Structure prediction request, 157 residues.
Amino acid sequence: MHVKHLIIALTLVLALAAGAQAYKGGCPGQGHYQDFMSGLTPEQQQNVQALTDEHHKELFALHKELLARHEAMEALFAATPTDKSAIDKAVTEVSELQAKKAKLNADYRVELTEIAGKPVPIESGRGCGRMSGCGANSSGATPGAGSAPGCPAAQTM
Prediction:
């Protein structure tokens, strides 16, 4: 029985790590995206900014929900006796939220491509996650914008 719990916990840790890595990426204006943004017209850049702001609102809300579900699941693992059906349900919910997050990111990338008329680079090197460099000192930051192009203004988890 302990092996099953260990496998589930390890799977969740790996999924969380993958989700955290995916969360870090995707900030137009940073790294490879700087070239992507520089070739756009001012109107396209404005559209990218608006799309990115909306995407990040949805992404941050989804991320908060994922964190809450992970915390709830940890509480289930800590309970004695262990309620396997509740844990299975929690794992399913977390998996569904992670799939929703992947779909949200994929849809965002497709919409960026449609706005720009060119493919979006696969990785930026730095994203818009915590401690990722999207701020006043980021490359591409403009006075009064508070952040690099494509990055939300101060967002907190």
Summary: Residues 22-31, 124-157 have pLDDT under 50 and may be disordered. Helices lie at 2-24, 32-38, 42-78, 84-116. The CA atoms of residues 138 and 148 lie 6 Å apart. The first helix runs from residue 2 to 24.
